[in-house]
Amino acid sequence: MIAAMLTEQQKLATIISLGIEITQVKDLDVLLERILKEARRLVSADAGSIYVKEDDKLKFSYTQNDTLQRRRPGRKLIYSTFTLPINSQSIAGYVANTGELLNLPDAYELSPSLPFSFNRNIDDLSGYRTQSLLTFPLKTSRGNTIGVLQLINGRDAAGRVSAFAPKDEPLIMHFANMAAVAVERAQMTRTMILRTIKMAELRDPKETGAHVNRVASYAVALYESWAGKRGVPAEVIDKNRDILRMAAMLHDVGKVAIPDAILKKPARLDDAERSIMKQHTFLGARLFSERYSEFDEASAVVAMNHHEKWDGTGYPGYIDPAAATALPGHENSDGTPRPKQGEEIPLFGRIVALADVYDALGSRRVYKERWDEARVLEEITAGSGTHFDPEMVETFFSCLDTIRNIAERYPDH
Q1: Contact 61, 41 (CB under 8 A)
Q2: Which is the catalytic residue, given 11, 26, 139, 255?
Q3: Residue 2: is its pLDDT beyond 50?
Q4: Do the domains at 2-186 and 204-409 have one common CATH topology?
């Protein structure tokens, strides 16, 4: 790794630069991945995990592992989330509880006199050998611990597993303090988005936090895979992941303007009701009419286009969201807006269209039961080239194991 060749001065300069960069990341999930990646790079760690404090527990939120990743080239690691109590029994729990950094040369050779122990279950399941551990708290400027970052298996210049150098501890703690500030800000942004979703949920019981988190995570997985195959530069992918995830969470926010009699009807809608329901697309886009950022632009695009269909039979088409009329030059013979088709539909719209339908089909609704996965996948396949972008369907199936893993991480309660 590059970090092994950096001088102390270069590491400090890198940390300062990273501190500026990570504050630009707005979405919490994207930020956690970036923090873990950069912390590992700084001290040449083969693997690592990040935990976020939720109430009185630690939630295992992200993991990265170069050794295991090499077994899955071009595909993301599959892992399950879990929680740990904040106490002194586990290593991460001890660090969260005490606020102290732990630098352990070998997790398998811990003294029995220590209050904490290492759980080898994950190693046994994955075939990985955890040796050196550098575990430290993410503390805000007020001294509150909001998470724990754990780096695994430091490597020397020759690539051999080695203990983490004590001289790197002050540097990594400095990075952790800056990362904690960025996480706190991202949590505030996520909270505001979820409060907006809760407002929509008061109107539409289908619009839950679990649903929007799944749709947003599916969308990011699809975009990453699609962009990677097309050779999109990594910095562009990272930027778009950040924007897309937040925008996708708000894809149905326009439903807050739909009457309860339609939104909460415990049966399928008739044609007149369906016409009113379709308005949630441009009504949602209207909320972002004052474009102050790329997030506003992306949110408007997703809200407006996630019900367009590849074959041109979707809605709302080329419409002015403010006036709810067809854009000049894009009218049907009867004056209604002409639907978009093919690549006229913006990329983010094509992605969220597939992510939203996949989640809706696999979820229970007042007018239907949850479809089993085989039936859902048949429907996605049948929709290739009609409802969905064929390339996006191909991308979907290429990362189906990641999609399934996301569904497990955000279950309906």
Answers
A1: no
A2: 255
A3: no
A4: no
Residue 203 has a pLDDT of: 64
d(C-alpha 389, C-alpha 220), whole Å: 16
**What are the beta bridge partners of residue 145?**
139
Torsion over CA: 83, 120, 161, 164 (sign): positive
Instruction: Report, at the CATH architecture level, how domain 2-186 is classified.
Output: 2-Layer Sandwich (3.30)
- What is d(CA 266, CA 257) in angstroms, rounded to the nearest whole number? 18
Reported confidence tier of residue 40, pLDDT bands at 50, 70, 90: very high
Q: Are 44 and 4 in contact (CB under 8 A)?
A: yes
3 state SS of 58: strand
State in Å, rounded, how far the first CA of the chain is from the last one. 42
Task: Sketch the domain layout of the chain as residue ranges.
Answer: 2-186, 204-409
Q: How far apart are CA 353 and CA 347, in angstroms?
A: 10
**What is the distance between the alpha carbons of residues 41 and 35, in angstroms, rounded to a whole number?**
10
Does residue 255 carry a catalytic annotation? yes
Q: Which amino acid is at 348?
A: F
Q: What is the DSSP track for 302-346? A: HHHHTT--TTS--SS-SEETTTTEEPTT-B-TTSSBPPP-GGGS-
pTM of this structure: 0.84
How confident is residue 205, by pLDDT bands cut at 50, 70 and 90? low
**What is the band of 4 on the pLDDT scale with cuts at 50, 70, 90?**
very low
Instruction: Grade residue 79 by pLDDT with cuts at 50, 70 and 90.
Output: confident
- CATH of the domain spanning 204-409: 1.10.3210.10
Coil/strand/helix, residue 126: helix
Residue pair 246/216 in contact by the 8 Å Cβ criterion: yes
pLDDT tens, position by position, 109-168: 999 999 999 999 999 989 999 999 999 999 988 888 999 999 999 999 888 999 999 999
Q: If you average pLDDT over residues 23-51, what whole number do you get?
A: 91
Please tell me the distance from the alpha carbon of residue 185 to that of residue 337, in angstroms, as a whole number: 40
Q: How far apart are CA 293 and CA 343, in angstroms?
A: 24
Cβ contact 301:348 at 8 Å: yes
Q: CA-CA distances (angstroms) from residue 208 to 89, 200, 283, 341?
A: 35, 8, 19, 29
